[in-house]
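Homework-ish question, so no full write-ups if that breaks the rules, but can someone show me the predicted structure for this set?
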Amino acid sequence: MKLNLEIWRQKNPKTQGEFKKYSLDDVSPNMSFLEMLDHLNEKLIRDGIEPVEFDSDCREGICGSCGVIINGQAHGPKVGVATCQLYMRHFEDGATVVVEPWRAKAFPVVKDLVVNRSAYDRIIQAGGYVSTKTGGHPDANAILVPKQDADKAFEYATCIGCGACAAACPNASASLFTAAKISHLSLMPQGQPEKDARVVNMVNQMDMEGFGNCSNIGECSAACPKQIPLEAIASMKSDYIKASLK
Amino acid sequence: MNLDSKSPSGPLEQKWSKHKGEVKIVNPANKRHHRIIVVGTGLAGASAAASLGELGYEVHSFCIHESGRRAHSIAAQGGINAAKNYSNDGDSVYRLFYDTIKGGDFRSREANVHRLAEVSVNIIDQCAAQGVPFAREYSGELANRSFGGTQVSRTFYARGQTGQQLLLGAYQAMMRQVNEGRVKLFARREMLDLVMINGKARGIITRNLETGAIERHSADAVVLATGGYGRIFYLSTNAMNSNCTAIFRAYKRGAAFANPCFTQIHPTCIPVSGGYQSKLTLMSESLRNDGRVWVPKKKEDCKKNPNDIADEDRDYYLERRYPSFGNLVPRDVASRAAKQVCDEGRGVGESGLAVYLDFRDAIKRDGEPKVREKYGNLFDMYHEITDENPYQVPMRIYPAVHYTMGGLWVDYNLMTTIPGLHAVGEANFSDHGANRLGASALMQGLADGYFVLPYTIGHYIASTKLDKVTTDAPEFAAAEADVRAQIDGLMKIGSKGKKTVDEFYREVGTMMWDNVGMSRTTKGLEETIKNFQKLRAEFYENVRIPGESGEFNKQLEMAGRVADFLELGELMARDALERNESCGGHFREEMQTDEGEAKRDDDQFCHVSAWEYKGRETAPVLHKEKLSFESIHLAQRSYK
Ligand SMILES: Cc1cc2nc3c(=O)[nH]c(=O)nc-3n(C[C@H](O)[C@H](O)[C@H](O)COP(=O)(O)OP(=O)(O)OC[C@H]3O[C@@H](n4cnc5c(N)ncnc54)[C@H](O)[C@@H]3O)c2cc1C
Ligand code: FES
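A: Not a homework solution, just the prediction itself:
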């Protein structure tokens, strides 16, 4: 396959970036999108051009490291996968492919396609946990959890923290990420005692980080590689109001 | 070099409680005056940082990733073992202990393994209390499944994403300590050297991967939780950034490296499909609960559509050879058996290097929805990668490098041969001997971090005279100068070199897979040692590294890691050569039984091989820790 690539190049957070054009003519349809970028980089290095920096680690859609905007879509055209799980067979031979980093004020660009998502860590730090210590716990089966609750909690807990939700949102809101953690813990009995404080602290932190407000557009859930359902946000909003009134 | 295991005396089942009663404790008010560096935020590092922070220590946590949550543990799929006996199928602490020792082919330390089995039950209670959404039965109780090398059902899981859920639990506990001010995070920092003062580990040198800045960090004790080194094979199931650098640099400073050649080759991975491939994808061992492994009986059938091959023409070779464990034999046995049928010319797929893992019977028995519920994400992953639907055609699988049992030598307190330097999780060598059982790495990482290290590191701090040190000490300046010299040296060659880091890296990987992989010979190993020396010389003359050192530069990062792999590969080959027996995942072709099973030599090799560094181009020195078995009778491993 042949590809015409337009890739965002930016030397560091302080300099301006710009799109650069590259063409590749020996792309295999069985390559993943990131393997295609590896392949481009090998070629660039041999040609004396600095390779395109991007983040990746697990390359199986679970660590949340990868993530770029491909032709305007976070993680590209295929639903329910991260960039590393996107295969070149989903592109046409001769296609033009535009690649850029996540665009959100709270995710500053480090270099080229690499951004800094530590804002997500700080949202978790504000309350995305059960305040329990190591050791001294009752037997795990002492507290029963209905299977449907555990399964639903699991579905929310599969969030990989990649940032696609905020990158896809026209308001750059981190609501889906924040709500996924809140919903996971709210569904488990262990999460109950701190339910109110958690939602208030996490939502306030999200605002402080400079993410936008949610206006129910739904681009986040559509772009989410784990397909976290939008209902999470609705329940976060109502929990937030209830908790703030207490 | 002193390899005193410090295993406590007394009966096996009482060693750990006795030891806990005897270790010295740091006064609660004093803990905050002691800083501990924890390098790594996987299961082992995050659980250690969280627990040490809760105890009141000042913890500095480092990782190469952008966030602690991205550590490679996140990718673990199948599950975590614990001797809970919830299935009422006869499980016990002793049985988990025994299975682990036997699974490791009698090459691990009894006292450590028994402790691991003991604390396994606490881990599940701990994770449940954190709100980890484990799989449950309709009763609301926790669900279990089976893994290889055992005949009980003791594996806890969260669909095919157990590592993710356990790591998020540990990461969240660590983030709570960040919020409390007890843990300070240093993300995107790569440890490039260990700093020793008066013979003790007192700090590290890191490179800030975003800015390229070289930094000094001091502490009273250092913990390495930096994971395994399977990426030396280039293609493996390990994540792209997994590396050996932290433990290798510690080895160069005097920490013994134990059993470097003990590598786990996992039987069920998606086969290699092209030269551009960057890593391999695991299909969890849990699939062997329901999937049946087979190849055609006749070579002529190998290219046929598998669904057209009648049952009597299929060879379910694991069920045939190992009737009592069947598809659930341990990994080393299953991998070797797959290689054997492929070597006989009965492999399937385009390359002939694959066997089938078939769910036809499970789908017939339980229905597709039930199978989807258990393994849905794995089936989807397989479908996306291979473009084949595993609900309709059997999966094609082949062994791939997955885990390294070897690592830094540690004593019962998880301390290396360098006072103050501890190693936890996959980075150490303990517990799994020559072969790790499935679902036991998560157990070990969390056991080390939550329940063992917090006690034993306190003992070190309380019983050692620790002078005050600052990063102004000359030892810090010297270590920093060494790191700078290495980076500057690489950049100097790199600006003129012709061959990319990746080209060298692929050569390292091919050499390792061909000669230090699933089967090993004297000749192959001897040649490999020489070839590494040659490749290293070429690397230091001709490697190409673009960009600058004072900025984000992935190629430079990788060049440093490949430089270490170029030395580690030789060490692994030396260790494999020296161990003239077959045991667990280490298979020397010269040493096999008539049936092609691993042939151990307990008279000569019932020991841990611990290597001492002597210089880049000087052979390392071997030291031995003899293994003695008091509770277990050494036996030829059989899964028949
Ligand atoms: C695909 C896959 C599936 C698996 N499934 C299972 C399973 O189902 N059950 C099971 O028990 N085991 C499983 N394993 C094995 C298990 O996941 C690992 O052994 C375990 O998670 C390792 O944890 P760790 O904490 O030791 O290291 P890791 O999770 O690898 O963490 C290493 C940490 O060290 C940091 N680091 C590394 N080098 C440096 C450096 N130089 N400087 C600073 N920081 C550094 C990294 O950033 C990271 O935070 C699986 C492994 C793989 C590859
Ligand atoms: S690289 Fe891990 S999610 Fe893509």
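Now go work out the reasoning yourself. Hint: The longest helix of chain B spans residues 554-578.
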